[in-house]
């Protein structure tokens, strides 16, 4: 349940193309166009109390009131915390730490988005595009919470339990 003065959702202000270029420099890899366009609209978000997070550029790690309201860093899962079985074409874009956690990654070749565990790139679910992921998951999560931000059924997992089979 979200406290009376807390936020159920956080949407971070957009970043510029030059800031996206900086992300690419730090990662040593390009950001797919669809995600670059997203970052120009919003520098990531956290919805339903962190049930789904889309990463963005984090400008600092200070612990001041204003500095804590930033997205999770998109560079970290694409570099120092990158899954060992990830290929160069895999671009990590988000995830969640709830219910044992998961990562979301985009395949740079075709733009499809996958959910995987925090241990392996093995796909557990697939969406045909980044916009499809955002629409489907936000709609699904909206059905799990009431208008006050309380989970309707706390025993209902927030993570989609279907498994992808190729």
Describe the structure.
This protein is of the alpha+beta class. Helix content is 21%, strand content 17%. Strands 1-2-3-4-5-6-7 form a seven-stranded antiparallel sheet, with helices on one face.
Mind describing the biggest β-sheet? Answer: 7 strands, antiparallel
* Class computed from helices, strands and strand pairing: alpha+beta
Spatial shape? globular
Helix and strand sequence: EHHEEHEEEEH
Strand residue percentage: 15-25%
Biggest sheet, spatial arrangement of strands: 1-2-3-4-5-6-7
Radius of gyration from the CA trace?
16 Å
* Overall pLDDT score: 89
Unreliable segments (pLDDT under 50, ≥5 consecutive)? Answer: none
Summary?
It contains four helices and seven strands. The protein is an alpha+beta fold and about 170 residues long. It starts with 9 loop residues before the first strand and ends in a 24-residue tail after the last helix.
Task: List its salient traits.
7-stranded antiparallel beta sheet, 4 helices, globular, alpha+beta, 166 residues, 21% helix
Topology, please?
Blueprint: E1 10-11, H1 17-27, H2 33-39, E2 45-47, E3 52-54, H3 75-78, E4 90-96, E5 102-107, E6 113-116, E7 125-127, H4 130-142
Antiparallel strand pairs: 1-2, 2-3, 3-4, 4-5, 5-6, 6-7
